[in-house]
Amino acid sequence: MMPPSLDIVVLGLSLSSSWGNGHATTYRGLLRALNQLGHRVLFLERDMPWYANHRDLADPDFCALEYYASVDDLITRFAGQIKRADAVIVGSYVPEGVVVIDEVSRLVARSRGTNAFCFYDIDTPVTLAKLRRGDEEYIARRQVPLFDVYFSFSGGPVLNVIEQEFGARFAAALYCSADPERYCPTGEPIQWDLGYLGTYSPDRQPALERLLLEPARQLPEMRFAVAGPQYPADIQWPANVERIEHLGPADHPSFYSRQRFTLNITRADMVAAGWSPSVRLFEAAACGTPVISDDWDGLDRIFPDGEAILIARSSEDVVTVLSKMTEAKRGSIGQAARACVLSAHTGEARAKELLFCLGTCWRQSRFVQQAGA
């Protein structure tokens, strides 16, 4: 059977800084839950100036966090921990990821102590689109079969694509999650009728225009907010839209709780793939704030449309919700969304899913060893 307490090494984009990325909060919820379940995690993060200047969790209490300056520095200082680990997980968008994967896979192959070598793709549709056009920024197509488990941000039919088209040994969905102790209703007075939290992305901007800015123009008596960095200076914001440059994770529950409704917008690659719920979607729902979302395949299987989420396809859909929905209906949708998260989309739920897959790898590796003895 699998050891009751695992040593896990994770090489990810960032744990220390949530500035401009959703990886940090995803990792935090997962690793915090692994710690609470009795497992030990070492997170290795490339020391990049952008994140170093915006660290909002430099000293986590649920795992060890170490920084490395280069791939050579990574291997020189941490080869021992990698070889001794029960599981090694490399994440998407790790700087020089192709080189990192090659070097770490060699350490894993030479180690008898490593039971599982995994990839955690928090950007699956983006990754697959990049690989199809020959863009191997952080993983190469030839490397996909190296991993015992390819954990995917996206579920549904995408898992078959990862296995059949890209040659993964085993692909498993590992959605983002929300920490219910940190993401919960704060009870603060409502400040905005509709808000949105997200870093600027060109492929999300048309949906933001359609589902928030245009409704704001049509409803000048209502209040709106957009929080997140990197928005171009030439965007014409309606007068009733408040701009907030950045909100750290500690401020997210307050931001969501002060909205009548919050908006979820999905990257174009994620929409095309379907079954790709973002961390912001789960966090907003955990705060009990009714979510208005763009539409994509699989969304209503995670949050039932009209019961736990409101799917909007046009500006008119948003205007109708904001101007006509009763307070009782609004409250019931928010409560249902929170119930969905608490039942199946917490960090603990994800940690148990990950551990189940690692246990399967452990049993298979022991079976192979015994068969070859």
Distance between the termini: 18 Å
**Strands side by side in the biggest sheet:** 3-2-1-4-5-6-7
* DSSP helix fraction: 40-55%
Mean pLDDT: 93
Shape: globular
Biggest sheet, open or closed, and with what strands and sense?
7 strands, parallel
Rg estimate, integer Å:
21 Å
Structural description of this entry:
Helix 4 links the parallel strand 4 (87-91) and strand 5 (116-121). The chain has 373 residues and is an alpha/beta fold. Helix 7 (205-218) crosses helix 12 (315-324). Residues 366-373 have low confidence and may be disordered. The strands form 2 sheets. It has a 7-stranded parallel sheet, sandwiched between helices. Strands 10-9-8-11-12-13 form a 6-stranded parallel sheet, sandwiched between helices. The two termini are 18 Å apart. It has helices at 23-36, 49-52, 71-84, 97-109, 124-132, 158-164, 205-218, 252-257, 268-273, 279-286, 299-302, 315-324, 327-344, 347-372, and strands spanning 7-12, 40-46, 64-68, 87-91, 116-121, 149-152, 171-173, 192-197, 224-227, 241-244, 259-264, 291-293, 310-311. The protein is globular and about 65 Å long.
